[in-house]
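Entry for galactose-uridine-5'-diphosphate complex. Fields follow.
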Amino acid sequence: MSPKTVFVTGGAGYIGSHCIVELLQAGYNVVAVDNFTNSVCEDGEAPSLKRVEMITGKPVTFYQCDLLNKAKLREIFLKQHIDFVIHFAAIKAVGESMQFPVMYYENNIIGTIYLLEAMKEAGCYQLVYSSSCTVYGNPQYLPITEDHPTGNITNVYGRTKYFIEEMLKDVSAADKEWNIISLRYFNPVGAHPSGHIGEDPTKAFTNLMPYMAQVAIGHKDSLTIFGGDYATKDGTGIRDYIHVVDLASGHLAALQKLSNSVVRYKTYNLGTGQGYSVLELIDNFEKATKTKIPYKIVERRLGDIEQIYADVRLAKEELKWETKYSMKEMCEHFWKWKTMNPDGYRKSSIQTNGSGNEPASVNGFHCQQQILGS
Ligand SMILES: O=c1ccn([C@@H]2O[C@H](COP(=O)(O)OP(=O)(O)O[C@H]3O[C@H](CO)[C@H](O)[C@H](O)[C@H]3O)[C@@H](O)[C@H]2O)c(=O)[nH]1
């Protein structure tokens, strides 16, 4: 059987690039698009994807394309034979979404609509959507199951995820050709164990682990903990942190499920099922990386929930998927990426780690950046 082709939106980003490694290693062909809104672009190419090619020894077909560019998207679908789509592309900063709601609704929702149209036109109906536990709002019970009520959300970014889930449900109800899985991510952290790819947003670092690593490496003086008075074991917020490679493997499990069965529309939590407080994360990070993270506790951050962690039984049972990386590995791998690449993907930042497994040939690899119409 010839290998299946997966179209990955937001492929140059943090989760997208890790997912592409897993896809290539599992034998899929990958066609990726990204508009570089929140990922590094060098000379029109994606350094993250060059590293993906280096890790896997396999090529990625890449287009710089915004999902709002309906004509280009359509052209790609007509040119490539796509079997599955994994849709990561979205803007995701909670604070920014409150300031620029129209930009968030346009980018996330209209972009998804154009994607669905291009898919339908090309006769591709198999979709894995990158959703978030944010759709649950403030949990009514824990651990949270997929049938927990959704929609009671306090920020615009979260509402875009929720509205898209609702839209996908409607689309699949209206036309039985569609086979769609929404994966609700908890808090992705860590990096590829090789240290060659990791998180390198072009927008400000606001998530906990990247910020902590900035402090550990000396780019920031101290960490600010938002709230020490929550009704949790130590007063700080609790989240379900999941290794990004485990998250990526969840997408392969979802593709498998789509290939083997008529799903129509289904949602799954992707987390570990275990909650860690901010102080526990700091403690684990310090131990795993032998660093010190000075911190100060301030007021709660507007819009933050107290605690959330997943019930992951459904994904285990139906997707046959389990996490395999520990909290220690999440911290170690993130730190390896950070110390090997203190300035992320920028060329000047490439460091060696003395392991003999350095990304020395990174700049020798070229994603097949596709120019349409040529
Ligand atoms: O500098 C920081 C950053 C975070 N935190 C705390 O660390 C925890 C995790 O915060 P993150 O910003 O890393 O992640 P969130 O849980 O706020 O947000 C994540 O989960 C959300 C769903 O709950 C959305 O999906 C969002 O996009 C995703 O980043 C929270 O208790 C937060 O208050 C700090 O104390 N200091």
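NOTE: Residues 348-368 have pLDDT under 50 and may be disordered.
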